[in-house]
């Protein structure tokens, strides 16, 4: 629940002298910076954090519009949480707002990962850093659980939507059905259900979602203050052209300077390819990347790849930031003709660029068309079904995160077409369970702030690790 001070701030933002709602760019920048530095826990934790900050506490965007944006971002290649931040920033403050939101979401993790890469290249494993992030990971479980409960409660209004969420969870968790097929199936089911069983859709909820609610962005749109969300083919073509040129420019520069066979050039091309095939988020592509990097290119050893994954899972920002570590170490170890440190930094920066620039292109080009379709009732029914499926997908991400936080080993049990991740009970980490349980009680029962919870758990993580627990 929002604090009294937050509630007062929200009311002043919404009323603004009784007329036009307004969120200043400075206010938004502060919030995006906070989200960027606290966005631990992979996509589930990051979506939970944005929902908590933007929907629950500040009431900047309504639940229905938040989920509408999330549905679109889940359909795109690349990190969905970063794209969601860009989308909401773009809704509030046009292209500049989207750039600020996206940069502040990505940069904290990129800065931390670059620092960790430099340290790793110098001294190898980083016990103190891993201990801090051990505590943070346990605390993030509370944020994830709270988000799944809240979003599920509001999105699963009726047995039809609950069934879709369960089916989506089972499809992706047990049967490894590709994410795009799950979303397409949910959208089709929603469209058919709207035409054949309209009673399954609550009329009041549908009217509320389409008319807008008492949230800042929704009221701005109702009053015609968001003309930038109107589709324009000319603007879309110009934006796509500029975006593609910017995306390709550093790769071309590296090829000209180092040759197309250099490690840096191959990194730029390989990770550009990776950026457009990561449907369903980073988890869907990590196995592919690990195989190519270790067995294909021979850039990293299996142990180094696992260390990189451990670091990425515990730093702020999208999980796909692990590719920054991979690029740093590959260039540091194999790029010739320059200082290993300089090569690592260039490879790191190049990879961050080619991975995240497409995120901005998808939003700035496609966002207006997605907003224009929002008032279509058949489409809304389809997206409501997609929202239910997304709840199941987020639950799957949450289960994955919980298993890898609380257990040291998780193996895959395959029975025909069924593939289940089964944690090894003997590898249960009592310290992680203790921290996660305490964080859940603190946040869910006593409503302790997330910043305090994360900070305390980080300190306790260090204390427990050095106590040998």
Name the features.
two-stranded antiparallel ribbon; 3% strand; transmembrane helix; 469 residues; disordered N terminus; Chromate efflux transporter; mainly alpha
Q: What is the gist of this entry?
A:
Belongs to the chromate ion transporter (CHR) (TC 2.A.51) family. This is Chromate efflux transporter. The protein has one domain.
Explain how this protein is built:
- With 469 residues, this protein is mostly helical.
- The chain has one domain (1-212, 232-469).
- The protein has 19 helices and two strands.
- It has a two-stranded antiparallel sheet.
- A hairpin with a 2-residue loop joins strand 1 (410-415) and strand 2 (418-423).
- Helix 5 (80-123) runs antiparallel to helix 16, helix 7 packs across helix 17 and helix 12 runs antiparallel to helix 15 (322-334).
- The two termini are 34 Å apart.
- Mean pLDDT is 83; it is low at 1-20.
- It comes from Rhodanobacter ginsengisoli.
- It holds the Pfam family Chromate_transp.
- The chain crosses the membrane at residues 96-120, 126-148, 160-188, 200-217, 237-257, 269-289, 310-332, 344-367, 379-402, 451-468.
- Keywords: Cell membrane, Membrane, Transmembrane, Transmembrane helix.
- Its main location: membrane.
Number of strands: 2
Helix share of residues?
Answer: over 70%
The secondary-structure element order is HHHHHHHHHHHHHHHHHEEHH
Number of domains: 1
Q: What is the topology, as strand order, of the major beta sheet?
A: 1-2
Task: Specify the structural class.
Answer: mainly alpha
Strand share of the residues? under 5%
How many distinct helices? 19
Radius of gyration: 22 Å
Distance between termini? 34 Å
Major pleated sheet: 2 strands, antiparallel
Low-confidence stretches: 1-20
Mean pLDDT, to the nearest integer, reads 83
From the spread of the alpha carbons, the general shape counts as: globular
